[in-house]
Amino acid sequence: MTKYIIHGGKPLYGEVEISGAKNAAVAILPATLLVDGVCRIENIPQISDVSLILSILKSLGAEIRTVDRTTLDIDCSNVQNRSVPYDAARQIRASYYLFGALLGRFGEANVPLPGGCDLGNRPIDQHEKGISALGAQVQVQNGYFQATTKGTRLQGAHIYLDVVSVGATMNTMITATLAEGLTVIENAAKEPHIVDLANFLNSMGANIMGAGTDVIKIRGVGRLAGGLYSIIPDQIEAGTYMAAVSAAGGEITIKNVIPKHLDSITAKLEEMGVTIIENDDSLIVKREGALNKSNVKTYPYPGFPTDMQPQIAAVLCLAEGTSILTEGVWDNRYRYADEFRRMGANIQVDGKIAVVEGVKSLTGAPVTACDLRAGAGMIVAALAANGTTEIEHVYHIERGYEDIVSKLRQLGSNIHVETITDEEWHVGAG
Ligand code: EPZ
């Protein structure tokens, strides 16, 4: 078992470079299954969710060659297998994009139902709605999501999504790319990774218009050929470092960002008294004085991202006064609150609302990361806390943050990794 040991209470100074966006990469990599040729993809983040998808693509027959640390050549031309192995796919949410890609390519797919973070109810009815509208017969059987077109080509369709869903929007885009005729997705999600997926597919020969608005039009094409594409920087990784310096104090430069994608996070932190200077592709974030309270509601983009909710909560724990958090996307995204309370935070949760009464300081404590962003929130709190915090279950964090320990050390924080053997762990746990 691996844990992070953080001796907090130290301001952050220096520069940090943001990696490629996880939630773009986990859709773009499966979408290479649609391409007849070599896709050279740059700025791929080195995180465990990406490793899992790459291992699934290999098991399906993809040829993958490393060009450099963040660039791969992926050739799925010879893939014949339409069935994804159970164990790997069950561990990630994004396995549903493999479903759309295999169905789009072969008219047939058999993929285990997705796993991923436990954030409450995570239905896939809107994926089913989009994919069925294109003419596939979809069923869920024995833990697998299965579909077939019975040998006919998928047909474009007009689809109105009942909820704004990132996954259903991207999956329908992937599935419709090689369908016959025009597909229109209404009430589409608008996150930066949706635009990135459309740009990737278009650069391989697709015809997708309107990504980034709530109506996306996909005119089906007969074939995608290979090409070069570079994944956008990770909005949430950048936001997490913004939260870290806001909580711990100091001044850092965050490089390789698209400042526009960070507007809602920047606006909230500025409201709380943090200074943010935007350059073309970097930000300077500085916090010296006291933090002001603020109310934060999470919404689909361009609203404040739910994937930043635990990290901003950690900052609010140290702000003067009472702040209200409202979770507008997931049913259950406050599982970290008990862990924050171990660190001295005053946070009370009632359904989708959390009330945070700011405290003067947090204190280090042993805590457990219950999901990816909850773990990131615990790191933010630990960097600001006096004393030592030990964070367990950091595999959740490593699903989405490349080299987080070395990046934080580069900013002067006192963090290290401790690995204990299973035997030591069981003795300790006994
Ligand atoms: C994506 O999940 C992200 N995951 C999540 O990030 C992120 O929290 C979420 O979008 C919202 O931004 C990936 O991209 C792999 P949704 P996704 O479909 O696509 C409801 C992280 O920390 N819904 O936009 O699964 C659903 O219950 C992760 O990086 C349906 O009702 O989210 C939720 O309330 C965690 N039916 C809302 O829509 C459906 O068929 C938004 O979910 C699908 C979703």
Question: Would you write up a description of this structure?
Answer:
- The chain is α+β, with helices and mostly antiparallel strands.
- The chain has 2 domains: 2-19 and 233-429, UDP-n-acetylglucosamine1-carboxyvinyl-transferase, Chain, CATH 3.65.10; 22-230, UDP-n-acetylglucosamine1-carboxyvinyl-transferase, Chain (Alpha-beta prism), CATH 3.65.10.10.
- The protein contains 15 helices and 23 strands.
- A hairpin with a 2-residue loop joins β7 and β8 (144-148).
- The model is unreliable at 425-430 (pLDDT under 50).
- Residues 22-23, 26, 93-94, 117, 121-127, 163, 165-168, 189, 306-307, 329-330, 372-373, 400 line the site of ligand EPZ.
- The site of ligand EPZ has 26 residues, from α1, α5, α6 and α12.
Notable features of this structure?
alpha+beta, disordered C terminus, binds ligand EPZ, UDP-n-acetylglucosamine1-carboxyvinyl-transferase, Chain, single chain, 430 residues, four-stranded mixed sheet, 27% strand
The kinds of small molecule bound in this structure are: ligand EPZ
Adjacency order of strands in the biggest sheet: 21-22-1-23
In round numbers, the mean pLDDT is 94
Give the CATH superfamily of the largest domain: Enolpyruvate transferase domain
Second CATH tier, the architecture of the largest domain: Alpha-beta prism
Oligomer: single chain
Taken together, the total number of domains comes to 2
End-to-end span in angstroms? 15 Å
State the helix count: 15
What structural category do the secondary elements indicate?
Answer: alpha+beta
